[in-house]
Q: What sequence folds into this?
């Protein structure tokens, strides 16, 4: 035993002389000091990384058998669809790899939403972590792209018609829209050309970008250090370092978190992989049929809130963003120099003309894209003197509660067929959603906050 | 504020207002009953395969539900070849007009909030009724104006629709109504199997994995508590 | 009493136990992925048997049929070709085909002298057992063949020089150490061979 130990030690010394292995270990694990009060909300970042690894590994093994070909085979079934069924039936353990990947996709979004919520709660987007946050927003957008392109690949009815609808969104852009849509699709309708490029995007292009962004995200985080539930920078403590080394304390906590997560995750994979039709949609078990659309087409549940916002911008509703833009520009004009005033007024006029002449459908797309982009503004919209929700005032807490409610309600509504009443509710939800962000400079300044502690409490 | 949240929580219920829903009968779960699955396979070949292919299923797969090679191959000159063939229909276009869909995944595709796809199929096959206005002479209360004729009419007999949108039996078939129900549930069980042959494997391994993970969880929790004693 | 030591040992045991449990989990988790790369049911389906019609095959000629992605040669050997077979035994590595085929079972009713069911019809897989190249047929005899003066006809693998006689048997001192494999096959009639399945014993 002693001989093995000393051999290993000598091997380590050999490597250390040529590569900073022990130094890296110390800097990032055994001597990396982290707040001691990180609670269960902090597991979701690590779980998100785990999900990324899982999706890549299962994806690689699926790609060995999957065929991105929309043409019809001898049995009258599109080749791509049939190849998925081959994976489910003929490939040894193929069914497990498929279910891991499909469940993993939905669970990835659950984990990411909870990870983002943790940041909202404790103000982890505030200075000096703005870049971590912005990288996160980019990661989320890549995640949406990878999820959308991946869903097309199974080439079921929802894959096809979902792709059709989303691609047609681009054609609502004035002037360039229709040509842009053709360029994106590779054809005038969604078909084999679209399937091929979705495959390329999903399997290699977006994952490469995702992995790069995640690395930058982690590096940026390590540079400034993790936030904590009290929102108080522990590194600046007057009484020295109150952090604890990441290893072994947070490595064992991570292992526990992993075990706790894997139990419900496995329960879903093995016992309810369809998850009521939310993780594997029922209509997607029917091969894509360009001639017959299913009764109700909606994107996957994780896009639902944004889809709700898209549908909420009806011609009648356009007046609301019109008013909001007007208020904004009036404020800009009021506080700016005369040279800027002129440009602001001009922009305002252009915006009004746009709202008047361009279809509501386009503004719905703008609102949808905007509803993701607006997250990026958070570090500069939050003017609260404190970081964490624990010490913020009543208005901030109310606003956050409203925001969460609107997100959930919009999510639910996005999966229902649009009726008059439901559209009205989703319009209200859209207003609340955007108000959370756009009114934040106002209500965070109005708030009466508690005093932050001088060091983390617990 | 919490009151507001409670009120907001009730808004989704509005969605349930309006829209009539047809109820589905629950299909008995015969996924572990090899006899039922074999009977269902035989029924499928006799009554359905003429129009409906199950192309994602190969003949050889039927060994998994206990059918012998002899039963699967029949008189084929090339037994190995037949085993590897997908179960194609004779001619899907027949006399029905539209192409009869492939049924490999029907019980997964027809699931909804009303019930599982198996429930749908079980109810569908027992809901045909006489309707002289239809080209086939049959209609169905689950799928209005369905293009499919009542292939199993000799077994079920004839139902007609009464004034309350209910169905009543006017001419009984050869087997009794409960026997017909068994026939249909066997057929449904076979198609449920065909939609996901790995289902029973999946559940078995699910138990194994959950047990293993529980053991790991106990160890992981003990480990965490042990180390975090230093901190608290 | 060293309570500190006890704590350390308890901790170490727990670490080892958890590591072992985790390791078992990781290995168990890797098994499905590795196994998924084994031939799938669909790959097995590619071994569907193929029918060869030899009605137009004349003595001295050869035809090729594809089965399981491989070339299957059917050679209609003349009387002369068959007579030359016995004399070659001492130049062959495995004249009586004692070495078993690795991939699939040849029919049970193969006659060892001619390596065929019907004496005149040779049915072999046209891939060199060395590394899988496909040999060329050289039916001309003697020096004209370009191989050696004693050449009675057979096959030459151009990749690494292995040679086979007209019964597919490999010559001594060649890089290939096995005879050309015989695929499962059965005669459906005088002119139809089903390649890919062996017949049941009569």
A:
């Amino acid at each position: 035993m002693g001989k093995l130990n000393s051999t290993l030690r000598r091997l380590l010394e050999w490597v250390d002389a040529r590569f900073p292995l022990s130094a890296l270990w110390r800097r990032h694990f055994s001597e990396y000091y982290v707040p001691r009060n990180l609670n269960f909300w902090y597991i979701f970042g690590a779980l998100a990384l785990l999900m990324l690894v899982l999706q890549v590994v299962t994806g690689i093994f699926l790609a060995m058998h999957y065929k991105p070909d929309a043409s019809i085979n001898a049995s009258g079934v599109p080749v791509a669809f049939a190849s998925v069924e081959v994976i489910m039936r003929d490939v040894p353990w193929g069914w497990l790899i498929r279910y891991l990947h499909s469940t993993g996709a939905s669970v990835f979004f659950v984990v990411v939403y909870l990870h983002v919520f943790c940041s909202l709660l404790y103000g982890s987007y505030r200075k000096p972590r703005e870049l971590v946050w912005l990288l996160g927003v980019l990661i989320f957008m890549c995640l949406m792209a990878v999820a959308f392109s991946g869903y097309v690949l199974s080439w079921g009815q929802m894959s096809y018609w979902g792709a059709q609808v989303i691609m047609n969104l681009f054609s609502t852009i004035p002037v360039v829209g229709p040509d842009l849509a053709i360029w994106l699709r590779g054809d005038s309708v969604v078909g084999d050309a679209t399937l091929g490029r979705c495959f390329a995007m999903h399997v290699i292009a977006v994952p490469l970008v995702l992995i790069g962004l995640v690395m930058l995200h982690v590096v940026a985080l390590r540079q400034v250090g993790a936030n904590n539930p009290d929102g108080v920078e522990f590194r600046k403590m007057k009484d020295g370092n109150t952090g604890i080394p990441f290893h072994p304390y947070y490595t064992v906590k991570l292992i526990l978190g992993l075990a706790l997560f894997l139990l419900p995750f496995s329960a879903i994979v093995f016992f309810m992989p369809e998850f009521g039709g939310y993780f594997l949609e029922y209509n997607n078990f029917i091969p894509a049929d360009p001639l017959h659309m299913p009764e109700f087409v909606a994107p996957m549940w994780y896009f639902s809130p944004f889809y709700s916002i898209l549908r909420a911008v009806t011609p009648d509703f356009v007046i609301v963003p019109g008013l909001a833009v007007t208020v904004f520009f009036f404020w800009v004009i009021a506080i700016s120099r005369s040279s800027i005033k002129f440009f602001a007024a001009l922009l305002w006029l252009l915006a009004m003309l746009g709202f008047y002449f361009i279809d509501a459908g386009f503004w719905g797309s703008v609102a949808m894209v905007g509803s993701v982009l607006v997250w990026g503004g958070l570090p500069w919209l939050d003017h609260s003197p404190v970081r964490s929700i624990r010490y913020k005032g009543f208005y901030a807490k109310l606003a956050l509660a409203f925001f969460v409610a609107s997100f959930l309600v919009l999510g639910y509504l996005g999966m229902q067929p649009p009726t008059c009443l439901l559209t009205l509710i989703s319009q209200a939800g859209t207003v609340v959603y955007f108000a959370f962000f756009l009114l934040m400079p106002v209500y965070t300044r109005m708030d009466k906050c508690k005093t932050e502690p001088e060091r983390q409490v617990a | 504020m919490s009151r507001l949240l409670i009120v907001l929580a009730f808004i989704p219920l509005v969605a349930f207002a309006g829209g009539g829903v047809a109820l589905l009968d629950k299909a008995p779960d015969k996924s572990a009953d090899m006899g039922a699955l074999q009977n269902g396979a035989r029924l499928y070949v006799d009554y359905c395969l003429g129009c409906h292919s199950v192309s994602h299923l190969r003949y050889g797969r039927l060994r998994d539900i206990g059918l012998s090679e002899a039963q699967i191959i029949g008189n084929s000159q090339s037994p190995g070849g037949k085993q590897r063939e997908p179960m194609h229909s004779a001619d899907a276009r027949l006399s029905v007009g539209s192409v009869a869909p492939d049924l490999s995944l029907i019980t997964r595709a027809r699931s909804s909030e009303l019930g599982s796809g198996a429930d749908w199929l079980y109810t569908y096959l027992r809901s045909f009724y006489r309707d002289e206005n239809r080209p086939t002479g049959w209609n169905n209360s689950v799928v209005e104006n369905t293009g499919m004729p009542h292939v199993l009419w000799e077994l079920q007999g004839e139902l007609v629709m009464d004034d309350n949108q209910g169905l009543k039996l006017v001419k009984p078939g050869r087997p009794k109504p409960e026997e017909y129900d068994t026939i249909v549930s066997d057929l449904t069980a076979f198609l449920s199997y065909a939609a996901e042959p790995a289902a029973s494997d999946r559940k078995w391994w699910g138990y194994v994995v959950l047990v293993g993970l529980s053991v790991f969880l106990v160890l992981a929790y003990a480990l965490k508590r042990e180390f975090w004693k230093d901190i608290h | 009493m060293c309570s500190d030591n006890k704590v350390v040992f308890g901790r170490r045991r727990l670490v080892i136990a958890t590591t072992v449990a985790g390791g078992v989990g990781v290995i168990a988790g890797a098994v499905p992925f590795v196994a998924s790369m084994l031939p799938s049911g669909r790959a097995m389906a590619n071994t569907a048997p193929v029918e060869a019609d030899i009605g137009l095959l004349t003595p001295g000629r050869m035809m090729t049929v594809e089965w399981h992605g491989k070339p299957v040669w059917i050679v209609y050997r003349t009387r002369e070709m068959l007579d030359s077979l016995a004399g070659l035994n001492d130049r062959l590595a495995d004249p009586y085909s004692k070495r078993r085929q690795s991939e699939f079972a040849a029919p049970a009713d193969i006659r060892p002298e001619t390596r065929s069911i019907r004496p005149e019809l040779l049915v072999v897989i046209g891939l060199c057992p060395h590394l899988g190249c496909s040999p060329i047929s050289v039916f001309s005899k003697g020096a004209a063949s370009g191989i050696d003066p004693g050449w009675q006809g057979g096959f030459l693998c151009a990749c690494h020089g292995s040679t086979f006689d007209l019964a597919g048997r490999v010559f001594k001192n060649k890089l290939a150490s096995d005879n050309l494999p015989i695929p499962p096959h059965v005669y459906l009639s005088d002119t139809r061979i089903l390649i890919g399945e062996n017949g049941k014993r009569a």
